[in-house]
Every structure is written in C-alpha cells, then in structure tokens.
Amino acid sequence: MSDAALKLDIFRSHYRRDVSLRLAALAAAMLALAFLVLVDLAKGPSGMALAEVWATLWAGPHGADRMAATILWQLRMPQTAMGVLVGVCLGVAGLQMQTILSNPLASPFTLGFSAAAGFGAALAIMFGGFLPVPGFILVPASAFVMTLLACGLVYCVAALRGTTPEILVLAGIAVLFLFQSMQSLLQFMAAPEVLQQIVFWLFGSLLKASWTTVAVTAAILTACLPVVIRDSWKLTLLRLGDVNAASMGLSVDALRRRSFVLVSLLTAAAVCFVGTIGFVGLIAPHVARAAVGEDHRFALPMSATVGGIILIGASVFGKLLSPAAVIPVGIITAVAGVPMLFVVIARRGKGEQQ
C-alpha cells in the first residue's frame, strides 16, 4: 500500500471514529431529554410515580383511569410538549444567529425580537378589549406580528446598507431599544391590574400552553426545519469566514438573509405563546459546539436537543422548588443562565490564551 493510500485510510478511520463519537453524544443528549420529559410529566401539584406516568401514556388519552388521563394528557402534556418545542426553536435559532453574525454572544434576542414580542403582547393586553377578538388569540397573534415587524425593520436596514454581521447587529440593537422603550411606555400608562398581566406575560411561563398552541408552534417548526437542514453544510462553510465561504461558491448574503428570516420565524413561534424566555438561545449553541464541534449537520440537532433539555430542566426545577405554584421557567432560565454565561466567557478566554 502506497503512503498516499495509507494516509487516506487513516483519515477515513479518524473520520468514522469522530462521526461515531458525535452520534453517541447526540443519542445521549436525546436520552437525557426523554428522561427529563418523563420527570416533568410526573411532577406537579398532584404527584405521579414514573410507573404511573408510563402506564397512563400507554393507555392513551381515553385510558381507564380518567383522573390520571386528564391530568397527564390535558394539563401536563401540553406544557411539556410546548417546553420541548420552544427549547428546540430557540436552540436552532440561537446557533443560526451566532453563525450568521459570527458572534458567540449573539442570540435570537440580540436583534430585538423578544422586545418586539413583549411590546406586541403588552399592546394587545392593554387595548385588546376594543377589538372583538378573544384575548387568548389576540395576545399571541400581536406578539407574533410585532416579532415579524422587528424582523422586517432590521431586514430593510440590512437591505439598504448590506447584510454584514456588523450592520445586522447595529440595526438589531436600534430595534431592541425602540421596542423596549415603547414597552416601557405602555407599562407606565397601564392600570395596576393590566400592568400585572403584562409583567406575568413577560416572565415566560409554560402554563399558557394548550394543544392548540402546541400544534401551531409545531407546524411553524416543521415548515422551517427542511430549509435549516438543507443549509446545514453551508452554515458550516460560513464558519470559515465570509471570504473563504464565498471562494467555495457560497452566496453568503443570500444564506444570511434566508437564515435571518428563519430565525425570526422560529423566535416568534417560541415566544408568542409562552412569553420571554432568555439565555436558551445563547447557551445551547455553545454546549452543542463543545459536544460535537462546528459541523452543523451535528451541531444543529444537538443545539435543538440541548435547548429542550435546558427548558424542561428549568420546568422540573421550578416544580421541585414550588410544587403547588409553579415558578415561570423564564425566571429560572434567566437566573441559571448567568453562571452558564460566565462559564462560556471563561472557556472562551482560556481558549484564546492557549
């Protein structure tokens, strides 16, 4: 065997080993998420053993034990399913955002999408009574529309000045402060009982979930995933830098615009029903890269799975802290995200020194 053939054989062996390790890490993360889902279903004001949860799941929504079936399928299952979907949406959107902006501290909220959703929800809560539309439809619809409006504003600025990471970040910061200031103005003008509703929405809670909201979020995620999967290899190329990616035939601006629209849709689907939930889109991509590397064929599903783990883990932790009155997951992810962010900064600083 010649030296070239021997080197090629060694390279293939290393590649197969790396792929096996990445698939094993992905399988372990999915098993961890499945376990947390079972624990989350078992926790609540009326506790259920894991064996009872498993039996009720197998029996289906029309099982013989009507009380257990109602608690599990009508009350807890929509919240847990929504938690997984929101975590997946934010994990995928976060990884895409950090890739197209070439910024490790970027997240779906960097461009003001969260602030826009909060303003839309506050606007609907405050003035929705003047419209003949139920609040449970008007509030998420208004949050969704405002998120897309924020996307449109940033997109227009980027279209005028170029879709470079710097222009996108600067336009996003401007949109962020615009919607935050208008949201603050509404809170200042709101009556005490209306202000309480706005603040509770901004906390971010899975208690608002229902099978209808789960279906809508799942439909948006399902519509976005084929495009995300198709662009996974192109996103990996983009990590090499704009110049290198363009030299390989990649249309960098088109990929950045397409990913930007997908991020806005995924973020809008995630926050319009459950409220603002921070840090998931920031932390999940870093954990995914540490586990499987920069190859987005593996990093995207890993980031989605880690996003689900973070959100369901926060839900379980909130139920353990206060079983009778569930603490909103947005509060827990915000508190837990701070030390996670410090770890990310410390690891990055250590890597740069080496």
Highlighted features:
single chain; 354 residues; mainly alpha; 0% strand; transport
Q: Could you please describe the fold and organization of this structure?
A:
This protein has 354 residues and is mainly α. 81% of the residues lie in helices and 0% in strands. It has 14 helices and no strands. Helix 4 (113-127) runs antiparallel to helix 5 and helix 5 (135-161) packs antiparallel against helix 11 (252-274). The chain is globular. The two termini are 38 Å apart.
Into which percent range does the helicity of residues fall?
A: over 70%
Q: Span from first to last CA?
A: 38 Å
Structural class: mainly alpha
Quick one: biggest sheet?
none
Q: What's the helix count?
A: 14
Query: Radius of gyration in whole Å, from Cα?
Result: 22 Å
Low-confidence stretches are: none
Number of strands: 0
Net shape: globular
- Percent in strands: under 5%
Spell the H/E element sequence. Answer: HHHHHHHHHHHHHH
Q: What is the residue-mean pLDDT, rounded to a whole number?
A: 84
Subcellular location: Cell membrane
GO molecular function, one term: transmembrane transporter activity
InterPro entries: ABC_BtuC-like (IPR037294), ABC_transptr_permease_BtuC (IPR000522)
Organism: Ensifer canadensis
